[in-house]
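Page 42, continued from yesterday. The earlier attempt failed because a stray header line got pasted into the input along with the sequence. Redoing it now with the clean sequence only.
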Amino acid sequence: MAHAEKIKVGGLVPSFSLPAVNVAGNVAPWDYKQHKNLVLILFREPACQPCLRLLRELAATYEEYRQLNAEILVAINSDLEQVIKLQNELNLPFPLLSDSDAVVLDSYTEEGTDARPAFGVLITDRWGALFSKTISSEMKDLPAEGEIRDWLSFIEIQCSECFPPEPWPGD
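This time it went through. Structure tokens are written below.
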């Protein structure tokens, strides 16, 4: 799998396959290729309060993401049992994945430093091209739900065979 320094805006994100707790089987970003824009959220600690707050906000506005032809995938560096517990607590409508060995998290977030970033938020178009990448150990850098939705709106208007969603977000 590619490392984060090789995952650049405009390039393709590498695929992975992780077990999901709220959908059947394993889930991979390329399961959605040519069908859905993606928001990939990766984090280390299931108890990360800013991360959980973002997940709750995404769940509350999930229908708007569906209207933007997007899916949200969340991979947590925790064993399957902890991820199931988190899903039971949050009841998220989008796939929640267990990255127990942190293989995906490390591949997507390590940027050649000694620090291990706490999270990554990556936003791609339906072909897997990366439009936005936020990787940090600082929770203040976590993008807001509205910023993520704005990126997806921008991606949708770039699609020559697509039309802006009706109604336009924010109207």
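Notes: Strands lie at 18-19, 26-27, 37-43, 70-76, 96-98, 119-124, 130-136.
Reminder to self: strip header lines before submitting.
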